[in-house]
Amino acid sequence: MKYTYKTLLNYIEGKIAKEQLLNYLNILGLNPKIIREDNEDFIFELETPANRPDLLSFIGLAREIIPFGEIYLKDFKEKVIEEISDFIPIEIENENDCPYYSCRIVKNIDNKPSPENFKKLLENIGFRSSFLVVDISNLVMCEIGQPLHIFDLDKIKGKIIVRKGKKGEKITTIDGKERDVEDVLVIADEEKPVAIAGIMGGMNTEVTFNTKNILIESAYFNPVVIRKGSKKLGLVTEASLRFEKGLSVSMAENGMERATVIIKKYCGGETGTLNFGGNKNISENKIYLKKKNVEKILGIPIEEKFINNLFNKMGLKIEEKKNNSFLLKIPEYRKDLKEEIDIIEEIAKYKKYSDFPSEMPVVNIHPFLLNSNYELVKKIKNILVNLGFREVITLSFISEEVVEKFNLGAVKIENPLSQMFSFLRNTLIFNLFEVVKYNISHQNKKIDIFEIGKIFEKKEDKYKELQTITIISLNTGTFFDFKGKIEVFFEKCGLKEINFVKNNFYLAKTENNCDIYYSGEKVGSLFIPNDELKKFYGIDDEIYICEISMDKLLKYLNFEKRFKQLPKYPSSKRDFSFLFSEDINWKDVEKEIIKLNLPIEKIEVFDLYKGKNIPTDKISISFSVVFRSAEKTLENDEIDNFEKTIIDKIEKKFNAKLRGKNA
Amino acid sequence: MIEEIIKRAEEFFEEGKREISGIDDVELLEKWKIKFLGRKSYLNQIFSVISTLTKEEKVICGKKLNEIKQKLMELYEKSKLNVKKKEIKYNLSIPGRKINTGNLHPITIIIDEIVQIFYRIGFGIAEGPEIETDYYNFTSLNTPEEHPARDIWDTFYIDKKNNILLRTHTSPVQVRIMEKYKPPLRIIAPGKCFRRDAFDSSHSPMFHQIEGLMVDKNIKFIHLKGILSYFIHEFFKKEVKVVFSPSYFPFTEPSAEVSISCVICDGKGCSTCGNTGFLEILGCGMVHPNVFKNVGYDIENYTGFAFGMGVERLAMLKYGIDDIRHFYFNDLRFLEQF
Question: pTM for the complete prediction?
Fold first, then answer.
């Protein structure tokens, strides 16, 4: 609903200026938004908390404001006079669903449209005008917060029954839609449902031109029941919004009283006897408030005068007071006040949050160390960034199309936003391909990216979240540039001796996948994707992917550093080029060279060549060997000898041919 | 034989002497060095022949050849002092060659800025699962089933029957940490959250939040104001007005919403702040006693506060980003700006 300043003033004794009102509403955190204003009036909306249905009314709002100044709530004086003894019997199937239901007959009303001022007010506060009696029920709801319903009495057969909808039962509501009300709380007569309780009335008993006699309903429904019904039907109304937040028996009584008075005043007719079902006992809540607890939570002293005025204006009765403690009786319209802390919050509100000082707490320096991986993951990200990769973050979802096409056993979301986001990803690869595709289509063709994020699995009824690193390159170098970066990455993470072991992977080009092992355990994989995957994303360029399990990486991660003495004697480098058989395993070559037991510091491949002058089943590998002795400067002829030894060994062992050597 | 060798060596020396006399350039000098002193030089080839000589001849020959090598070395060293390095002229107006660097995602950068601000005052970093149970996401946070406040968080369910969902906020981390550790504690918990919101310029079904929690003896509302004011000034690094006003969250009471004077228009009113001059940036409050009861904390002796903030919103304000989807499209031209 919307509120108007002038209407609100009708419920307040004393003066309150426009600016003052806005200021109060801001202090209360209701964030007023002005919709329209002219010289004397303005219309505004509020953000009211989920536990305050009372604020969805002029009286509730007036009550919220009056503690601020010399202003008071206005009283209603008129009382109902029952003129005829007609009533309709009520039967409540389950008093838990509907603790209190009341209704009253009014006969021979003057059924006419609303006067202009009613129409204007309704329009201002966001309602459409209908027949006068119906408009009155809406105005009373906005005035005191209690939703009411008006039935055409002559269309109700026999008694009123408050019950759950039966299997297959349907009702057409006043908005013209047919709704399935099975298991939803309804108001029925002896033949049919006539309204969806607390949500919307039925067309079959709606007030029309021909209506002469009416039945006014005012009830207290179980908020959970209304909320469930509203959700099930996907139908939210001004009434359901209030009922689901929890109203009360006394509000239902007040609503009936007020509606009857006003209907009598404007529509005339003969007022019938009130009938009700359920429990009329009002259980008023009592809260014990200790002054020291107010100070314990808020940190500022509270004066007694302030408390007395506040409680008085809020309608909280102090039943007992001793030793700086208060026993408070809570009125039924403030069901949100359940315990001491709720009262403390009210005190804070009216003390004005902005008037509280800002202070730093004085505490012991308890170091609070948790075993979070946050700092380690940050270091890992920085290593990748230093290697030239950009971090991306993608949504943790994956589309139904991808899951089906690539047969991924991903975890499904029961109520997805759309097919695009209907599963939880179980690999980052597809999301990164999306990013690649997006960038290529925006002329960003050189891509070096990585993502660190969780992937999700379900195993033996347990959901698992696995942190994963995925790195992708295209158009930024050769496969060996990429592989080199991955090797440096592992080295920087303290995993010095990783092994690449050929394997097959369903997303990789045949023969173009290897698993990465450290200490006998698989930590990741490195591959070139197959054409199917590339075609799916419309990517032509060569693309390289590396996936690493964060759990495994963290297990072996070692950022500890230890200084190694710098070498005393100079080194010498010799380069070699050999023609090897194409499927040579480089690790074997390295092993053989190391087995020679020469003073070797480092062996490094620096060039690969296939093509012109090279037989198709061969590959030329160029590498350098750095010799260094810890004891002396190596002489040229010594190194010449080492060189010869290496050449002999490789030629014999691998049937390789020396292509040339350089100083 | 020896004479022949020595003669050739001397001729080689003379050749070297002749060639070096005209050299005035470093590059040519280095070429000369390779030719006359390199591993493949003629002199070195002669050296390798020595092995075929008798012992006596080896001595004579070796001595002579070493002499020549020594003299060539001297020539080289002398000449090296004389030749000047070629003066290279640089046209300084031509731009340098750029190298490709990587960088972190702006969300990661903002999260770390926030985490570090709290880390400096002794908050430990905590994390929690993204697939949560109804209990941790709602019930333990004083939001039982059918609580109307649950509408604030439109939830994705993985298995509704078994109460498995994607967490809608980072608040469950509070409960998980309190279950595991006794008070006092101070934590800051960043992470991904999920809400069933459309993917548009101001909403995303996945986003990041940072949760904070402090529990100790004598923690009061005035301290919540103190800590968060410190944070906001550290984060925005400029004078911003901070306003606390009442709000409602089931798991804190009193609850507050913190707004700052708009960092885009300095409070004058613009489209970012909806012409109000103020921006809501975080929700907070004193931890509700029911939450403490749920984790078995002693509510007589301990009090605390909690707060939560949306990372995307703060990043958008700090960097002036107008569309939340930029974070997830990952356009390289967007990413390289941070």
Answer: 0.85
